[in-house]
């Protein structure tokens, strides 16, 4: 389904202190969205009803971002209440799972149209890297959140970060996600995001390659039983398409950016193209859609061995030597080290898929 995403930064505050977070050194500031929530809702309603949005997109998703977005539940509640009767509008929140008791009543207003993405890195990394501000482990908090969401039959998924130096923990993390899969079903996928900001692939390449090969064997056995993989490492989800033409992010001041990563970049002014308070806000959003709409994927990337390619456009821009904003934002080849990481996954993954296909042809999966 073709989707347009509107990200709302409800707050820049957070109650966790994740060691790898690209926002960890950011000092939260006062928000203007709280004071202008009625105006924000009116602007969003105008945008959602624009003819080009209706024509080009099957649905609109309003995503809540932070910090920890649920630390400002008032905005989330007001947005959901305003749009709850519009069946084209779906909702999404990124959360660390610490406030699900307060979040659940809001979600239940539109349960079938509200998706929750809970950050969980798996054990032991969760308690090593995702601690509270005062240094306490968080795995118990998050696992209790899973139980509460599942009890209410609320749609949730998991999103994980694995830094390069922690790759040796991958077999233990896989076991932890397997435990969750048995408890909560097929909604559990170990969707790994690597650290886009501090790239240390070359430093840990040998250990990473060894671990991926080990996991490939486990994944093959898992596939024999389920006809699917537990991780996203070998899924073939090559996500190269630039998101900018089908999304926007609004920060706590009402400034509009390409995506949420832009807010914390030293190049943030290059990515800020309007505010919700400008008279030509709607026109600027449409212009931004048009200038990114037909951007082509480079031939080098189309023929790449990588099965999966999840890169941060902000980091592409920061690393690129190109001059034009659009060219820099979509410079897929500007990060050689992370390209080599995904190529390694691709080579191992393709070998695994060939083995599975051969065994399938021999009747081993029947």
Structure description:
A nine-stranded mixed beta sheet has the order 6-5-4-3-2-1-7-8-9, with helices on one face. Helix 3 runs parallel beside helix 4 and helix 8 runs parallel beside helix 14. Among the domains are: 159 residues, Aldolase class I (TIM Barrel, Alpha-Beta Barrel); 92 residues, no CATH class. It is an alpha/beta fold and 366 residues long. The chain has 14 helices and nine strands. Helix content is 41%, strand content 12%.
Question: What's the short version?
Answer:
This protein has helices at 37-48, 51-56, 73-83, 100-107, 125-129, 139-151, 170-184, 205-226, 268-271, 281-293, 299-302, 313-319, 325-329, 336-361; strands at 3-9, 59-65, 89-95, 114-119, 156-161, 192-193, 247-250, 255-257, 274-275. It is of the alpha/beta class and 366 residues long. Among the domains are: 3-161, TIM Barrel; 243-334, no CATH class.
- Let me know the number of strands: 9
CATH architecture of the domain at 3-161: Alpha-Beta Barrel
Beta content: 5-15%
Roughly how many Å is the radius of gyration? 21 Å
Task: Quote the average pLDDT.
Answer: 92
Q: Give me the number of helical elements.
A: 14
Oligomer: single chain
* Largest sheet: number of strands, sense, barrel closure: 9 strands, mixed
Q: Taking strands numbered 1, 2, ... along the chain, how are they ordered across the largest sheet?
A: 6-5-4-3-2-1-7-8-9
